[in-house]
Design a protein that fits this description.
mainly alpha; 0% strand; Proton glutamate symport protein; globular
Length: 392
Amino acid sequence: MKKKLPLLAKIGIAIVSGILCGLFFPLWATRIFATFNSIFSAFLGFCIPLIILGLIVSGIADMGKGAGKMLLLTVVLAYGFTLLAGFGTWAASSVVYPKLLGDTTLTAMSSDATEIEPYFTIAIPPLMNVTSALVLAFILGLSIPAVGGNGTIKRFFEDFKDVVMLVIIKVIIPLLPIYIFGIFLQMSANGQIKMVLVIFVKIIVFLFILTVIMLLIQFIIAGIVSHRNPFRMLGNMLSAYVTALGTSSSAATIPVTLRSAIKTGVSPAVANFVIPLCATIHLSGSTIKIVGLSLAMMMLSGMPIDIGAFTGFIFLLGITMIAAPGVPGGAIMSAIGLLTSILGLGEVQIGLIIAIYLAIDSFGTATNVTGDGAIANIVDTVWKRSRFNSSR
């Protein structure tokens, strides 16, 4: 059986080939891909509210199953670390980016209008805007457990989630490399690609350093709570980190994460509950990438950064990504609606964020699953020291 190329390899090929082809492609050929990108972008805009409904409703409703104190503690810790990653990235980037980026601006990203026009465009208006989709998803997700967690509505949205995942896996993800090829093709043809590559190599290195710092913070906190050596615990989680680098999937890494967490001293019962749950709701690494890339894109585009809007973006980001790890590229797919509606990023900016996010996806996933071990240690310690288990 012929082995398929992983998504990361396809993205890498799309970026490199787009850069090279932009050096010699005639204008008529470049406009063909500009036309494809215009249509795909419209289709993606149509799908975003549906993706939000499909992933968030089912994800929030699932958290109502078996609700209890351990669930609440795990959710609070996972969301708390996700927020810490988001606001920490914002703070660090605000200090480092002005020096890292200097006065660089990328005119190709200052608006959606590029010098290379498509032959034609097709308008595909979404059924609802992103804000309406978010509000409806929260209302339904929180209400479904209250009216009977296994009723008709719950089953409908479970099926709807499967439909959305099918569209992402079978349509959006396969077409993404062509979309990314078109973006880099146009940038190369416009003569800005060298500047783009130099800048984003710096940003990628910076974001990787932030993921390492985030893991150290998580395990130092876990070490203080559990009275265990944080560096030894982190060392015991390295097999999960390395596995996630290869799989780029929190769900696929669960068996290794479980063994690693138990090796750090977490009781099997707690690990069996916390690790699969955190694979869905704990996304510190993904948050670092999305916040860091979006802030860089805004600075490079000369966009004003509204503190209130960015704060709301980070708070909502941790919620909208729930259940996204089950889908390849699900976190960034879920975040697109917020990037457009709250931050006001455009087609070219979103395309670059998607390309770079997917190119370094494995590092974010590795950070997510490794941090799950820190959360499991905290939950295990609190559970043993408290009277929570007496009520079981």
